[in-house]
Every structure is written in C-alpha cells, then in structure tokens.
Amino acid sequence: MRIIIDAQGGDNAPREIVHGAIQAAEAYGVDITLVGRGDEILEALREIGVDTLPAGVEIFNADDVVDMHDEATDVVHSHRNSSLVQGLKLLADGNGDAFISAGSTGALLTAATLLVRRIRGIRRAAFGPTMPTKTGQCIIIDSGANAECTPEFMLQFGCMGSFCARKILGIENPRVGLLNIGAEDTKGTPLQKESYALLKQASDNGIINFVGNVEARDVPLGAVDVVVCDGFSGNVLLKSIEGTALFMASQLKKMFGGSIGGKIGYLFCKKGVKDFKKLMDYREVGGTMLLGISKPVIKAHGSSDALAIRNAVRQAKQAVESGIVEEIRANISSMKVPKE
Amino acid sequence: MRIIIDAQGGDNAPREIVHGAIQAAEAYGVDITLVGRGDEILEALREIGVDTLPAGVEIFNADDVVDMHDEATDVVHSHRNSSLVQGLKLLADGNGDAFISAGSTGALLTAATLLVRRIRGIRRAAFGPTMPTKTGQCIIIDSGANAECTPEFMLQFGCMGSFCARKILGIENPRVGLLNIGAEDTKGTPLQKESYALLKQASDNGIINFVGNVEARDVPLGAVDVVVCDGFSGNVLLKSIEGTALFMASQLKKMFGGSIGGKIGYLFCKKGVKDFKKLMDYREVGGTMLLGISKPVIKAHGSSDALAIRNAVRQAKQAVESGIVEEIRANISSMKVPKE
C-alpha cells in the first residue's frame, strides 16, 4: 500500500510532515510518496539523520505551494504544479492508494472533487471527523464542506457516516441521529423535517439504523455514533466542542496552578490529567476523511506535527483496508432520492 | 417592583418555585405574585415554615397547568386558566413588572408574544442566554426561538443582544460577532452574508460594535460579548457547550475517582473543582430573558430548583432596572430594513 502525502501543506510543513511520514512508514509498514520541494524534503530528512531514502519512500517533486490565501475554487488551474494538485493527480492516476494533506481545507475539497472525483451518484463529498464522547466516539458528518444542503445530501451523509462507523470505527450497528433542536420529528427547519423522512426510510430499508433527532447537548454524552447535519451546523457543533474543551482545559490548569494545594493535588492525579488531555488531542486522531470521493483522501489538522501526521497515515491505511469507498459504491442505489 | 412567577412551571413545581420565590423576596426586596393552584402553593409555603404570606407576597389562583406535551401554539386558547396564561395576562395588564416561568419554552414564547406582545417594530422575540467564557461571559442570540431567520431578524438580534450586554452585563462597548464557519465576510450561507452587511452598517452607524464573523471554537474562548445567530445554529452552539461541559465534568470525576492518588489529589484542589462546577452551573445564572417582548419575560431552566428561581428573580429585577425594553424601543428605527 502506498500513501501519498502533501509535504508542503500545513503550518509545520515540510519538516513535521516529513518526520511524521518517515515514522509512519516504519510503524505501519506502508510505502510513502512525499510530494513537494525535493530540496526541502531532503533537508527535513537529514535533520532526523536520514541520508538515503528508506525502501518504499519516494519523493515526487512539485515546486509550487498552495497557501491559505489562495482562492480554493481556482487552485487546480492556478497552482497546477503545487504539491496538493500533483499529489491528487498521482492518486487519481493510480500511483498510490490514499492521499493526505494538512493544507487548505477548501482547496483540498475542490481539488479532490475535480481531480479524483466523487463516487458516481454521490452529490457532495463531506467531512466526517471523529470526536470523543462519554461512551466512545462519534462521527459528525458533514462538518463544514457544504454550508447549504438538500435532504438528499443529508441522506447520503447519514449512509456514508454509518458505513464509516461500521467499517472504520468497528461499531456493529451504528446509531445514526439527525442533529436537531428537539426530539420530536416536527422540529427544525424544512431541511430537518425532509431529511428525517429520508433517513427513516433508509432505516426501514435496513441500510442504516436511524434513531431519530439528536440534540447537540447529547452528542458529547454519547447518544449516537453518527450525527447527520448540514455543514454549517456541523461546523458549529464540532468547533464549539473543541472550543469548550480548550476553555475547560484552561480552567483546569488554573485550578491546579492556583494554590500550593492545587499543585500538590496535580502531582497526585497527573495520569488522569494526561488521559484527559489525550482524549481531547486532535493529534491522536490524525485527520478527517473526505467521504464520497472515489479514493481515500484525508485532511490532517492545519497545525499537524509529526505525531498527527503519523496518525493520519495510520488512518489512511485503515481507510484503504476497510473498503469504505467500495461499500459506498455498492450501496449507492439506496442513497438516491428519485426525481419527482 | 413586583415579579410575577408561574408557580406551576418546571420539573420541580410548585415546591422549589415557591421556595425560591420566598427566598428571593427577602434577598432582593421585591414583591412577588405566585400564580398557580392556591392550595398547592400554600402547602409548599408551610413546608418551609411560612404560615402567613409575607408582606408583598401574593397568590393569584390559576387551576390549570400547561405541560410539556401541550401544543405550544394553542395554549392561550386551550389553557386559558393556566398559571402561564394568567401570569402573562397579569403582566400585560400592568399588575407586575416582569414574569418568570420554568415551564415549556415554546408555550412561553407563543403566549408572551400573543399576550404581552412584541415591541413595535421587532419582527421576532429571541432568547439571549448568557454563557461563561474564558474571559467573562457572552450572550448567544437567538438560541432557539426561531429556527428560520431573515437577515433583518439577525440585525435585530445583534442590536438587542448588544443593548443587553451593555445594560445588564455592564459591558461598555460590547463586541458583537456573527456566528459563521470562517472569518472572511464571504463565508456561510446567503443568510450570513446578508446579515454581515446589515450588522456592519449598524456598526458604521454607531448602534453596535460589530467585529465580524466569529467561529464557534472562539466563542467559549471569549472572542466576543454577543454572538448573533439563527435559532437553529444558536441552539446547537449553546447545547454543545453544555453537553461538552457535562462530558468533561464526568471525565474529571473519573480522573479524581480513579485512584487513591486521585482522591488525595481531589482533597487538595477541592476549591478549584467547586469553582469549576459553579462556572458551568445553569442555576447560578437563573434564566434567559426573552428579548423583544414589550415587558421583561424570563425563561428559567426546566429543572430549576429554589436556587435557580431565586437567581431568576434577581435577573428579572436587573432586567426591569436596566431599562432594556425602553432601550430597544428607543432604537427601533435603526433596527429596521427598508422594504425594497
């Protein structure tokens, strides 16, 4: 298996990307193609004492870099020789099994859609990141790729999220919930009401296990395994969980740092604090799969360090092995809304 | 000042409501009208050793009760003699200065709109609860009264929230942000783009201090004092902060309970843990004002106990004294969008 990595994407590129990739090649026994500026990649390799390329690791030279200020919809044309575009072309052409980038989310979404293309029948690709919950973890789909959605998109998000929870997270019969502002099926805007009906129908047909509406409050508490939402609300959900965790971590720090007693207390429950931080650390997850694209594409966090990239590679490997893309393709007929 | 209280609303009615009201009457020097079943209210009073009504405390008999299953849009007609409807009528008729209920949110919203009415020119009443943040607190408006909004509603939410932050929270020049999925003014759906323009115009005219888009992640971190959003996203934001806080509190408990070291640690930082819990405790806030109604109406949490009701009364008193309703009325001409 070969994983293609955008060596120039993200705040800590190329150094941390390259370091993480080399660690992952060894840890997970995968081949790696590093796409980016050859000289910078070689320099990053030398820094960790790698003077000759390890077996299975290749460099594909791409001199241009996409940055956060570039117009996302235009990069395929304006940055033809960028690591992002060239890496996705390698994937599209079959020169690798999955692609990882820590660069611009919008550019990755657009370029992956144009170059690798969606699975036939899928209306929109969506991000389905995994969040820790009180009882395990859950997938939030879509978490920001599509601010405006139709009920059909939502049906497809629910199915793709459910397949992902089963094939990648290993949850046998994932509970799929629709993000809403109340439990009753009359709640929300027309989008939620129509999506509810479609998800229920898919559940009646045995494609997914739809458990109804879920309120945002119950997501971190573990009420469902998959949360279906438009990209706007999904982004609000995901980011507010993240922000609250950061806020509370800072309160925790204050609590421990505030007094001598607190400092002594900290010594006694150091391990607990460490577990707690780990649970909330995006670096442990690695990245987010772009579901609906015809080959696995992973978006790593913009501030990814070597550990995050290493975990993103583990995740890409899982995605390839899980057969998630094939699963979506095989079920596409159940994920369509007949035109009236 | 007289505060009218729905003695039959909420999970712990009438007992906790009555107890909290009596505490508040003494603590804040306000007169109280308890609306509900006279005999049940008297029994609740006897339980705390109150055999004769304290000066300034009155009971207004209303035998019917609105419950969570009643159709919200219909209670004004179907539950004419309920504590909710009768209490709001007392407010509308000038027999009190503010109204508090811990009952059904939807019923309160509809009944307050029909009986007390909106301030002339205000298109929709909105909930603007206060949340703790890393740097203080912020108002989230609308947090669920209106799932679907127009840009004009959003402009009015921004202005009402800003007046509230200034007059009630005492923030001199509140930073008003628009909840969005990115910082750039091109982000979001048409609703966000049009609302952005209206809020910016209001800011240019000196009515509010609009600081642009705010991402959900930065809300708990204290980026703004007022978050403007449609009721759907606002509800997701508010509830996910609440759920994450609950989730993390349970992790914290596990951390302290997990080992003997943790238990000893807990003893050393007990005060910190207590502060932390207090920060996240809705009972400390009391309730949420329904902004845009022509007199102060406060929604207390459904599971309010005596402490929460006591704080809701404090909040109602603040709302009356702040002159927030008059402030909205005085600025209404700047909060309208001319018809094209």
Number of strands of chain A: 12
| SSE-based structural type of chain A | alpha/beta
Q: How big is the Rg of chain A?
A: 21 Å
Percent of residues of chain A in helical segments? Answer: 40-55%
CA distance, first residue to last residue of chain A: 43 Å
Unreliable residue stretches of chain A? none
Beta-strand percentage of chain A?
Answer: 15-25%
Total helices of chain A: the number is 13
Shape of chain A: globular
Cross-sheet strand order for the largest sheet of chain A: 3-2-1-4-12-11-5
Main beta-sheet strand count, sense and barrel state of chain A: 7 strands, mixed
> Which quaternary structure do these chains form?
homodimer
Tell me, rounded to a whole number, the average pLDDT of chain A: 92
Encode the helix/strand succession of chain A as letters.
EHEHEHHEHEEEHEHEEHHHHEEHH
Q: Largest interface, and how many residues on either side?
A: A-B, 56 and 56 residues
Jot down its keywords.
homodimer, alpha/beta, seven-stranded mixed sheet, five-stranded mixed sheet, 12 strands, 16% strand
Description:
Two copies of one chain form a homodimer. Chain A has 340 residues and is an alpha/beta fold. Helices cover 46% and strands 16% of the residues of chain A. Chain A has 13 helices and twelve strands. In chain A, the strands form two sheets. Chain A has a seven-stranded mixed sheet, sandwiched between helices. In chain A, strand 2, helix 2 (38-47) and strand 3 form a beta-alpha-beta unit. The mean pLDDT of chain A is 92. The interface between A and B is large, with 56 and 56 residues.
